[in-house]
Amino acid sequence: MAKNDVKLLGAWPSPYALRARIALNIKSVKYEFLEETFAPKSELLLKSNPVYKKIPVLIHGDKPICESLVIVQYIDEAWTSGPSILPSDPCDRAIHRFWAVYLDETWFPTMRGLLAVQGEERKPLMDQLSEGIVLLEEAFGKCSKGKAFFGGDGIGYLDIAFGCFLGWLRVAEKITGLKLLDEAKTPRLVKWAESFCADAAVKGIMPETDKLLEFAKVLAAKMRGAPPKN
Ligand SMILES: N[C@@H](CCC(=O)N[C@@H](CS)C(=O)NCC(=O)O)C(=O)O
């Protein structure tokens, strides 16, 4: 298999697969997207990610790379001719990585938790998510230094790590009728989200909110062991 043969094993609703797709687009790398259906998990997935058996997996030539944030860093290092994704300054890099870990270990798991509960039980989770967004608004002020993105003039590592969740954030807002990004509390992130979704590397691959909402309803019903409900 040729070294420039690039495949991405992913799934359309996956925010993690979206990270890899955005990074590949930033670097203008052509790749084949292989949709994993998980029913059952494909041989290719089991062989490529035997530890976690999860998507995304980037297959570069015959080498599988697993874990979305590792994949984004790999793409940045393997295709140096395109714009840099990680900041050049070690301290800025550390800050981007810090927030990416916060998003994956704290913020998004809370959002996933929304699907497992109903009604009033969702409010405290939305409050926690909202507090996290306010922290990210402050972080944006420090990282962006007045520019459009966490990464400055262009989409960087933290933009990808956070921006991949925007579809799911909209779904959470629709499900609960509560706002997470709003002009009053998070004006800079409202603008950032618009710029992010309009960027050439993102436009066209961000899942539609309504389609994601239907998917979320089925997933939520499965998590609660009940038939899907509006
Ligand atoms: N930490 C992983 C998370 C990947 C992940 O959770 N992938 C989900 C789809 S969004 C998956 O493959 N789930 C299948 C499973 O859990 O068996 C990453 O960043 O790549």
Textual characterization of the structure:
- The protein is an alpha+beta fold.
- It folds into two domains: 6-78, Glutaredoxin (3-Layer(aba) Sandwich), CATH 3.40.30.10; 90-215, Glutathione S-transferase Yfyf (Class Pi), Chain A, domain 2, CATH 1.20.1050.10.
- Helix content is 54%, strand content 7%.
- It has helices spanning 15-26, 43-48, 68-78, 90-116, 122-144, 157-163, 166-176, 187-198, 209-224; strands spanning 6-10, 32-35, 57-60, 63-66.
- Strands 2-1-3-4 form a four-stranded mixed β-sheet, with helices on one face.
- The N and C termini lie far apart (47 Å).
- Residues 14, 16, 53-56, 67-69 line the site of glutathione (GSH).
